[in-house]
Write a structure and sequence with these properties.
The protein is of the alpha/beta class and 344 residues long. It folds into 2 domains: 84 residues, Arc Repressor Mutant, subunit A; 230 residues, Vaccinia Virus protein VP39 (Rossmann fold, 3-Layer(aba) Sandwich), CATH 3.40.50. It is 49% helix and 14% strand.
């Protein structure tokens, strides 16, 4: 056995650590490719780095290096004629039906690079500490200081809704629900889908005023669902001024637990004794997308002292809001549906 073989007993482990330590390079490369429009410029035939560089106004050599790095992750593939799309790289196109363009931008926005170095402090202290560092909560700061990033967030949420909404609509039995409030429902893509699937249903899109100002056209005056929809601006952390049969929290109760409890309590106060509360969330327990889930969990820790939930933690939030868990079941490969009701 050589000295080198003695020193490196598990070369695969060495490779794994080196690649994980450099994983920020992959995130940065994805963001750069989206920002300069590589996926949009690359059509159905392969193109050389020179052709692509001319089309998007980039440096040929540097673009080639970017494409080469991304190809190692299956984002684009190199052929004899140049670089071509893969199923993965097509997700960076805005016109792809399963597009993740804005999600990619959201989780690589400039503020994320500011926050990641604070993970050590968060682990030591038990708090992300965003409010202590920036003087206000994350979303208030986002809208004030990074309004373009706030727009990216809303578009990313719509993308994620498109990927999951049909599964959510199939999982939600709304046959006995007359009115539904989509709490912090963004632009309303999920609500619009639920209204389309349930012709008897009336719905309310409730979110911050700047968000609902850009609501899905189907829900606004003149839209095909406007006669069964209302758009209401406000903060669920202050009040939910709408009484309804059911309240939907889709990927929302992932803030700090005290805020999640407040939002649920406000819905319970607004509702009736027989109102239902639907919580759709990406659970850590048994998640087949565990790297995505645990990575997001750490990001939420840093920007809002939030979390991705386990069965125990989401159940604790529900109970602290004076509600009880009625049922919990999978929606698709990464989402769960939890239904809650008043404790008494």
């Amino acid at each position: 056995m050589t000295i080198q073989e003695k020193d490196i007993t598990d070369h695969g482990a060495v490779i794994g650590v080196r690649e994980l330590a450099l994983s920020a390079a992959g995130a940065a490369a994805l963001r750069a490719a989206v920002r300069i429009g590589v996926a949009e410029a690359l059509g159905d035939r392969p193109r050389t780095p020179a052709e692509l560089a001319a089309a998007i106004g980039a440096d040929t050599e540097m673009l080639g290096r970017l494409l080469r790095a991304l190809a190692q992750h299956g984002v684009f593939t190199q052929t004899e004629e140049g670089y071509a799309h893969t199923a993965t790289s097509r997700l960076l196109r805005e016109d792809d039906p399963n597009s993740l363009k804005y999600y990619t931008l959201w989780v690589t926005e400039p503020w994320t690079w500011e926050l990641w170095p604070h993970l050590e402090d968060a682990v030591r202290n038990g708090r992300g500490g965003f409010e202590e560092k920036y003087g206000t909560d994350f979303f208030s700061y986002l809208h004030r200081m990074w309004p373009q990033s706030a727009d990216v967030f809303n578009k990313a949420q719509t993308e994620l809704s498109r990927l999951a909404t049909h599964a959510v609509a199939a999982a939600l039995d709304l046959s006995e629900v007359g009115t539904l409030v989509d709490v912090a429902g963004g632009h309303g893509f999920t609500l619009a889908t639920l209204l389309e699937k349930n012709p008897h249903l009336s719905g309310v899109l409730f979110d911050l005023p700047p968000v609902v100002a850009e609501a899905d056209g189907r829900l606004r005056a003149g839209g095909e669902l406007a006669d069964r929809a209302r758009v209401v601006g406000g903060s669920c952390l202050e009040e939910i001024p709408v009484q309804a049969d059911a309240y939907l929290f889709k990927n929302i109760l992932e803030w700090a637990d005290d805020k999640s409890v407040t939002a649920l309590r406000n819905a319970a106060r607004a509702g009736r004794p027989d109102s239902r509360f639907f919580i759709i969330t990406n659970m850590i327990d048994g998640s087949p997308e565990i790297k995505f889930t645990t990575g997001t969990d750490l990001l939420f820790l840093l920007n809002s002292d939030g979390r991705k939930h386990t069965t125990d933690t989401i159940t604790a939030v529900v109970r602290k809001a004076d509600l009880r868990v009625v049922s919990m079941r999978p929606v698709n490969s990464y989402l769960h549906l939890l239904e809650a009701a008043p404790s008494t």
